[in-house]
């Protein structure tokens, strides 16, 4: 039987998964400000982490879907469990990405 992985390495494992994922992984605060942006998000949306972190996520959400962002933020308010969500957003080239 093998030993379980060292718990002190868990954060490094998670960071490696996020950095090497093929899917965009983006986090934001309750004011819709981007707090993290992985390399796949940069590749898919055409904006680097430096360009997006500290900016509103609304910059990549089409105006007709702005209400959906408000719903997501309300669902993530204190006391509510955050749910995974998928939506349509705009890439730097103005293509819509689902």
Using the coordinates shown, work out and report the CATH topology: Beta-Lactamase
- Following the backbone from N to C, one meets helices and strands in this order, namely HEEHHHEE
Number of helices: 4
Rg value = 16 Å
Give the amount of beta strand, in percent: 5-15%
Structural class, please? alpha+beta
Counting copies of identical and different chains, the oligomeric state is single chain
Stretches with pLDDT under 50, minimum 5 residues: none
What's the rounded overall pLDDT mean? 82
Q: What overall geometry do the principal axes of the alpha carbons give?
A: globular
| Head-to-tail CA distance between termini | 43 Å
Please give a structural write-up.
The protein is of the alpha+beta class. It has one domain (17-97): 2-Layer Sandwich (Beta-Lactamase). Helix content is 33%, strand content 11%. The protein has four helices and four strands. The protein has helices spanning 10-20, 39-45, 49-52, 66-75, and strands at residues 26-28, 34-37, 89-90, 96-97. The strands form two sheets. Strands 1-2 form a two-stranded antiparallel sheet. β1 (26-28) and β2 (34-37) form a beta hairpin. The longest helix has 11 residues, at 10-20. The model has no long low-confidence stretch (mean pLDDT 82).
Strand and helix layout:
Elements: H1 10-20, E1 26-28, E2 34-37, H2 39-45, H3 49-52, H4 66-75, E3 89-90, E4 96-97
Antiparallel strand pairs: 1-2, 3-4
What is shown here, in short?
The chain has 98 residues and is an alpha+beta fold. The chain contains four helices and four strands, in the order αββαααββ.
